[in-house]
Amino acid sequence: MKTMADLIKLDVFRNRMKKLNIDIELMGNYPWIYIYKINGKTIQREDYFEGNHGFTIGFLPIRPDQDFHFTDITRIFELVRKYK
Hints:
Blueprint (H helix, E strand, L loop, with lengths): L1 H18 L4 E6 L2 E7 L2 E2 L12 E5 L9 E2 L2 H11 L1
Antiparallel strand pairs: 1-2, 2-3, 2-4, 4-5
């Protein structure tokens, strides 16, 4: 099932952040996946990216031939640094 493979990518990302003592909470509104909190700090509206409910980390695929992709790795890590 392709969706499980896509969720594994998110799980790997969260686990790697946990190794760096960074706890990331995600929230979803299909197909958007948002970063909701970093180390217990809620993402503020001025930091929202490509969405209305939070910082969009990626999009779940709509069609079976698509893969999950992260939006902008550079911006994701800038956000992590800001809230860490």
